[in-house]
Design a protein that fits this description.
single chain, elongated
Amino acid sequence: MEVINALGRRKAAIARVYVKEGSGKIVINKRELEIYFPSPMLQYVVKQPLNKIGVDGQYDIMINLTGGGFKGQSEAARLGIARALVKINPESKPALRSEGFMTRDPREVERKKPGQPKARKRFQFSKR
């Protein structure tokens, strides 16, 4: 089987995901999943699409992650894996869509405006 690739994004994180048939090994930036994400919660987030459609252990996944923090990176990887699984088997899309794994979370950091301390915060108003 050829390698299926997909892209996942969340906040400032970008995940390039490459999926091929194999033994279920997940490698992120040339490191094992357990080493890259020591937190069991983040490991669970990355594996959610695989567990949902019951193919955990059937595919080898290689992920290149850049930008963002660990939470954003784990959710970007989840979206990329879900998109790759749909490319492999389009019948799995409704199950993944119902759990929200196919939806790109569009929330980004709002830019800081000039003359203000932060994006929406204002300096204290003085009448006199």
